[in-house]
Amino acid sequence: MTEPVYDGTDSLVGLARxxxxxxxxATPDRVHAAVEALALLDASRREDVYWAGRLAxxxxxxEGRRYDIxxxxxxxxxxxxxxxxxxxxxxxxxxxxxxxxTGDSDDEQTGGAASAAASSEEQLRHRNVSALTAAERxxxxxxxxxxxxxxxxxxxxxxxxxxxxxxxPRRTLRAWMQAGGEPAALHHRRHRFRPRxxxxxxxxxxxxxxxxxxxxxxxxxxxxxxxxPTEVFALGTRLTRLTxxxxxxxxxxxxxxxxxxxxxxxxxxxxxxxLKEFLDRWGQRGFARGAVVVxxxxxxxxxxxxxxxxxxxxxxxxxxxxxxxxxxKAAPGFAPVAAGMAAALPHVxxxxxxxxxxxxxHLAAVVRGAGRA
Length: 373
Prior knowledge:
Rossmann fold, 3 domains, 9 strands
């Protein structure tokens, strides 16, 4: 008989994975906060585990409702209960198959359905997008449409009123004048923060054909739901700006407009020449200056690799950070030995994977400034 497990940290991490599959934004920083909160409580009490995760992993009322359902399905207990049960080290999918929903309670039926859906989505998150079936690809597109890509924030020179911080001399003097010259309460101010622009350069050449569709869906979610100024370009046989097409609300309509805008998809590409064109036409004018530039490509270069290295170095000098997402990085034994990738890598700030939904979620965290290698 398997010994009972009361490791609260392990439970929170596993719960966070299931919550992400159920649509709750259980980001790494939220998980870290939940683990820190649980360290101050009793990890053997289910009630303490519940509230540590409830307060740290959820940001909205809808996420709280989903949390209650997933928590009940994940631990097999009511959310607020303090009764300790023995939890076996069995995979989540096996747990759903053996137990399933019991009784006539609507809450229990909803919990079983949420657990089954969460388990299948959790498996899909780590599947390579190049090996998905048609049904799995449709589900992947739905999940990609729910993603957000907030940009890394930067401090501006402008100020905003604040309850603390440095004294705002203009507002303070104005208050004193309105009080007839008598000293009044001091007014304070702080710097405003705004998200940095995000620039996505998506490789749609023949070598990226199996990944381009998912990456373009990811770019659409970033442009539509990130709340950050976002520019999208396609790297094919030519450079194509897709920002206008990505502004469409419906993902399928946006993909149809994108396909019409870039008839060169699936051909060859010369990354060095296209990056030079981007920098000459757009980057030098301000799109890349101070932005987080993300290149989604396998790094195969048909042209001069020296030119590619020079242009990536030039891009790094203009941008705040250069992130390169390579779908082939996840392959066993991968090494950046391709000439193009080897020439560009010394000038890349973050080199990450881009082959699955989980990898793209990690990419979004890196763009935001969290989860950097």
